[in-house]
Specification:
Structural class: alpha+beta
Strand content: 25-35%
CATH topology of the largest domain: Rossmann fold
CATH superfamily of the largest domain: P-loop containing nucleotide triphosphate hydrolases
Order of helices and strands: EEEHEEEHHHEHEHEEHHEEEEEEEEE
Distance between the termini: 34 Å
Shape: globular
């Protein structure tokens, strides 16, 4: 492992910000720290960077314990949410700043900076100032500045949070491609699930200072193995009593149940329903256009759940009574989570 955290504990007074944090990251991977506000993800990032110190445990980078090594000597590039550019410096001088601090020869600085400016797609903007750039361009300057000293590890604290949605989407793809090209180990903090799924090679779920789960985006999404991950990931709705939805196995040891939009099939009353005996009636309360699908809010058995319906299907309307069939749910027992299939589906998977 290139980055390892072993038994990390971090306190702020009586508040435990990191609770026995353990994980490892392979060299060249792009990893997302994902969790709600206050879950401890930024604290972890800052401890790796050397901006905070753990109260217990060890942080290793490339096999070396770095707890007592100053941030400036850890070989880390850091990209802040707010860009943190020097407004009185040009693009060139912002990118060159760290190299000048290191007293790199001027000719090497020029070559390195111009190369990075071209790499991040800002060639020709070397003499502009931050207030002459868009938000996306400023963040690219911040990336270039972080990369200038040739760091072995790149840390990014919610790097797209201050950028509008369209540019954010473009930068996600750009960042993933750039990091793959450079083969630099990278860790970024985000609270945006779509961002983590799209960009990261691996996702680490944080909650109340603990690591809940670590794995590929597909594995974490399809196989949440803790109650928190099941309740947090994938826009789930909690069902007060899942047994009201017919033909699910009734178990006394189940404590909570969650359904995701993709686990729900909405059918108009006149349409054919493959699993009619297992469907229940619901009423459409809201319809949200999501570009390639419609997101429906449907009240059924006293609970409003989310579902999706394709644009190529006949439109439904607010107030319309529909049939609701739930293929599967995530259920929890203590801190464990597992999948429960609707028994009418048997072994056949009908959800893509």
């Amino acid at each position: 492992m290139y980055v390892e955290l072993k038994n990390i504990q971090k306190y702020y007074g009586d508040f435990k910000a990191s609770d026995n944090v353990n994980f490892g990251i392979e060299q060249g991977k792009l990893v997302a720290l994902l969790g709600p506000s206050g879950s401890g993800k930024t604290t972890i990032l800052r401890m790796i960077a050397g901006l905070e110190n753990p109260d217990e445990g060890e942080i290793l980078i490339d096999g070396k314990v770095v707890n007592n090594i100053p941030a400036s000597q850890r070989g880390i590039g850091f990209v802040f949410q707010s860009y943190a550019l020097f407004r009185y410096m040009t693009v060139f001088d912002n990118v060159a700043f760290g190299l000048k601090i290191q007293k790199v020869p001027d000719n090497e600085i020029k070559e390195r900076v111009l190369s990075l400016i071209e790499l991040v797609g800002l060639k020709g903007m070397e003499k502009r100032y931050p207030n002459q750039l868009s938000g996306g361009q400023r963040q690219r300057v911040a990336f270039a500045r972080a990369l200038a000293p040739n760091p072995k590890l790149l840390l990014l604290d919610e790097p797209f949070a201050a950028i509008d949605a369209k540019v954010r989407q473009e930068l996600r793809s750009w960042l993933k491609g750039m990091i793959q090209k450079l083969n630099i180990t990278s860790i970024f903090v985000t609270h945006d699930q779509d961002e983590a799924i799209e960009v990261a090679d691996e996702i680490i779920i944080t909650n109340k200072g603990r690591i809940e789960q670590k794995g590929t985006p597909l594995d974490v999404y399809q196989n949440p193995n803790t109650a928190f991950t099941a309740s947090f990931f994938g826009q789930p709705t909690e069902l007060p009593d899942y047994r009201l939805f017919n033909t699910f196995e009734s178990r006394d040891d189940i404590e909570r149940a969650f359904v995701r939009p993709e686990f729900v099939k909405i059918t108009k009353l006149k349409e054919e329903q493959l699993y009619e005996k297992s469907a229940v009636h619901g009423v459409i309360e809201d319809i949200l256009f999501r570009g390639n699908t419609l997101e429906l809010r449907v009240k059924v058995n006293g609970t409003v759940i989310s579902a999706r319906r394709g644009l190529d299907e006949e439109l439904v309307s607010i107030g319309e009574t529909v049939e609701v069939f739930i293929y599967r749910i995530f259920v929890t027992k203590g801190d464990e989570a597992f999948l429960l299939e609707n028994s009418t589906v048997r072994e056949e998977s009908v959800v893509i």
